[in-house]
Write a structure and sequence with these properties.
This protein is of the alpha+beta class and 395 residues long. It is 53% helix and 12% strand.
Length: 395
């Protein structure tokens, strides 16, 4: 092979080698890019899934700092508070109606009937009577708690407050009579002493309760020195009822007449997440109930539950978030404006109002978060302040 051909052959090998190296490098780059893309897709999916899970978690303390206030927000800067000097202080606008007053009187006389001392009056079903009794197991042994000791108890016949045989055994007898009634107790009766036994009750029928007449005598008899007459009693009721309605009006006024000038963007965003989480939790609860009862879900998703399109639901979430944010901002602004504070006892009261026992405060914190408990205590403090400082004048 000539020198010229050898040179040409070497150049071809060198070119082929460079091409191979270039292709290999490109392959490595493509491989890296593909790997990066795969990692990014997986990471993105994980982040999206994590975000979705977070959105579904119902966090009652979302957006609040440790003291229950909206994080980083001075609420008074966002709210124009109501002018309480413009409250409607006209008593007559809050007095109960004639119908409400009569309903109240009926309830009072029903709660305090007169016991008739008439003898030989036959009692019937639905009558309310006064009886005394002594209960003896098998007619021999008096059991603990089975003696009224002449104190008299009120029994409305046919209501099932007492054993059926006890109540039915009284019907048809006459006031002033003393008689025996046998009552069998089931083997699973809660009182082990009586379970599976027959108790013979010696009953004295003291009298029948009759509807009382609402008058001065009735009021003095049942309410003593606190009132002078029936009219005095009603005036106190009217004023108390009016003040209760006025307190409700003031609380509503504080919200309706205050105006939120703008919403903190971060907090509004968190309220939207909160609203979505509430809906998701409601759907989960309903679906769980349906699964246990029927073996299938009630709804396939939140949109199905709310009967809305995505667009409609988005608008609904925004409106609900604004409504909740508005209330929270106004109550916090009032709390700041009135210069109020919250104590440990206030927090425990909130915990109790949420259904937790006195020694279960930590359980309430775990369930709702302490910031939420603080926020609810703040709201209660504001309402208490309004009730204490804005009152109707008795005239």
């Amino acid at each position: 092979m000539s020198q010229k051909k050898r040179m040409l052959e070497r150049k071809r090998r060198e070119a082929a080698l460079k091409k191979a190296e270039r292709n290999q490098a490109i392959g490595r780059v493509i491989g890296v890019v593909i790997l990066v893309l795969i990692i990014a897709i997986i990471a993105g999916a994980l982040i999206f899934d994590s975000a979705k899970r977070a959105e579904k978690e119902l966090n009652y303390s979302i957006g609040l700092d440790a003291t229950g206030k909206i994080k980083g927000v001075k609420a008074e800067k966002y709210v124009e508070l109501a002018d309480f000097n413009k409250l409607n202080m006209n008593n007559s606008d809050y007095y109960p109606t004639e119908e409400e007053e009569q309903t109240y009187i009926n309830a009072i006389v029903e709660s305090y009937p007169d016991l008739s001392d008439k003898k030989n009056v036959e009692v019937k079903e639905k009558d309310t009577v006064s009886v005394d009794y002594i209960g003896r197991i098998d007619g021999v042994k008096e059991y603990e708690g089975g003696n009224t000791n002449g104190m008299g108890v009120r029994v409305t016949l046919g209501t099932g407050t007492y054993p059926t045989e006890f109540e039915e055994g009284i019907i048809g007898h006459k006031t002033g009579e003393t008689f025996d009634v046998s009552v069998p107790f089931t083997t699973d009766f809660a009182n082990e002493e009586l379970a599976g036994k027959i108790v013979v009750y010696t009953i004295t029928l003291n009298g029948i309760y009759e509807p009382a007449e609402f008058n001065d005598e009735f009021v003095k008899k049942n309410f003593g020195a606190s009132v002078d007459s029936a009219e005095d009693f009603l005036n106190k009721y009217r004023m108390s009822s009016a003040q209760t309605k006025f307190d409700e009006y003031v609380q509503e006024y504080a919200i309706s007449e205050s105006k939120v000038k703008s919403y903190p963007a971060s907090y509004l965003s968190k309220m939207k997440k909160y609203m979505k989480a509430k809906d998701y939790k409601q759907m989960e609860t309903t679906n769980s109930t349906y699964q246990s009862l029927y073996g299938n879900d009630a709804y396939k998703d939140v949109l199905d539950m709310r009967k809305m399109t995505k667009k409609e639901y988005k608008e609904e979430v925004l409106n609900s978030a604004k409504e909740q944010a508005e209330k929270n901002l106004i109550m916090q602004a009032l709390f700041e404006n009135f210069n109020l504070s919250v104590s440990e006892d206030d927090l425990k009261e909130v915990s109790t109002s949420l259904g937790f026992g006195e020694d279960e405060y930590n359980d309430a914190v775990e369930r709702f978060g302490e910031p939420y408990l603080y926020q609810q205590a703040m709201i209660k403090a504001v309402n208490n302040y309004l009730a204490e400082n804005y009152n109707l004048i008795d005239n």
